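Practice problem 4.
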């Protein structure tokens, strides 16, 4: 099977701080992957390198065989941790902006999801709650026919009922030719939809395995394994290679 994402000895340093430390990753298409780790583990840095927003200090990364650049960016749909649209805009403005900017954006799919969540097309961003803004942002991202979806904390600010809809949206809007990398602290909520997990600590990949393999080997949930690993070795300590 062709690899969708390949990282080879990927490193990123900010002065004396090492955010990523010689990471090797191989991700196939058709997978939903949880990118898991405590604050400061390098999750957002890795995501931003794959989007092309940051350049690595050393090593390389490719998306669908393409080096990170203009061509790879067209294949990536990115949900940042922070909001990025203006308060004066309406829902319809955001949908039209994405339709104008991305050739693979399905505006009818976006409108249908907005309707399902009760987000009015004429509603202004400034009148939306934080949770509604996050729902709209995810709708925009998942309405693209991308190869790689990079979601940074997509369910952090929404209520439990909306989380179920968001996870279902992720499940039903990516294809066997694409993959989703999802960074979150809410492991219990997302574990049922995950195919694989990447445990990241102090900029290193501690484990990258299928969820089924972890459950079979450990006899417990991914969340329980995560808690044990990051409880016994503190951030800033020596991680097993």
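Answer key:
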């Amino acid at each position: 099977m062709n690899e969708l994402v390949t990282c080879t000895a990927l490193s990123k340093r900010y002065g004396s701080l090492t955010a990523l430390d010689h990471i090797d990753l191989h991700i196939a298409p058709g997978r939903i992957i949880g990118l898991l780790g405590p604050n400061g583990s390098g999750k957002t840095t890795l995501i931003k390198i794959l989007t092309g927003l940051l350049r690595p200090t050393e090593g390389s990364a490719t998306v669908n065989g393409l080096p990170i650049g203009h061509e790879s960016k067209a294949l990536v749909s990115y949900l940042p941790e922070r909001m990025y649209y203006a308060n004066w805009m309406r829902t319809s403005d955001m949908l039209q902006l994405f339709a104008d900017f991305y050739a693979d954006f399905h505006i009818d799919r976006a409108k249908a999801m907005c309707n399902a969540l009760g987000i009015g097309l004429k509603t202004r961003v400034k009148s939306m709650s934080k949770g509604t803004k996050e729902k709209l942002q995810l709708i925009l991202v998942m309405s693209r026919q991308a190869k790689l979806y990079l979601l940074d904390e997509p369910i952090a600010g929404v209520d439990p009922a909306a989380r179920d809809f968001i996870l279902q949206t992720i499940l039903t809007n990516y294809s066997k030719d694409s993959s989703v990398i999802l960074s979150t602290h809410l492991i219990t909520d997302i574990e049922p939809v995950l195919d694989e997990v990447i445990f990241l600590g102090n900029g290193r990949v501690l484990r990258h395995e299928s969820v089924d393999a972890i459950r079979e080997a450990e006899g417990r949930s991914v969340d329980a394994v995560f808690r044990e690993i990051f409880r016994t070795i503190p951030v800033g300590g020596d991680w097993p290679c």
